[in-house]
Amino acid sequence: MTATDPALTALAQGWCALSLLHGRIEAHIERALQSGHDLSVREYSLLDVLSRQHDGDGGHLQMKQVADAVVLSQSATTRLVTRLEDRGLLERYLCPTDRRGIYTNVTAAGLELLGEARPTNAAALREALDEAAENPELAPLVRAVETLKAPLPA
Predict the structure, then answer these.
(1) Model pLDDT for residues 6-25, shown as the tens digit of each residue
(2) pTM to 2 decimals?
(3) What are the Cα distances from residue 128, in Å, to 34, 43, 45, 151?
């Protein structure tokens, strides 16, 4: 295959369309969450991921798992956790069975803020998808997103 190969060109165009859709959605949600709840998309995602953990075996996520879930490096995730901890939305504590492990939990204030922000996130996502669906280049991607099912836990 060469750089001018039609298959590569189509692949690159598809990737550009997907990137454009993602950027538009994220920017739309970011504005809504910032203005309504003083949260970034990453902060919201982190609170959401951590709120779904549970006590017991396998219930708490390691920092690498959290970083993967919010699509950040481990160091960026740690900085994000620290910012939310400083705001009283998260708390860290040592694992009771392995003193090397550190757990991060959402506080009551964090759960309250997350509960308030969830409808905003959902509405902003719907608005962004509806706007993107009006663009003929993005409409097929919007339809694909709308038909996706959430992955089942492993």
Answers:
(1) 776 888 888 999 999 999 99
(2) 0.85
(3) 16, 19, 17, 22
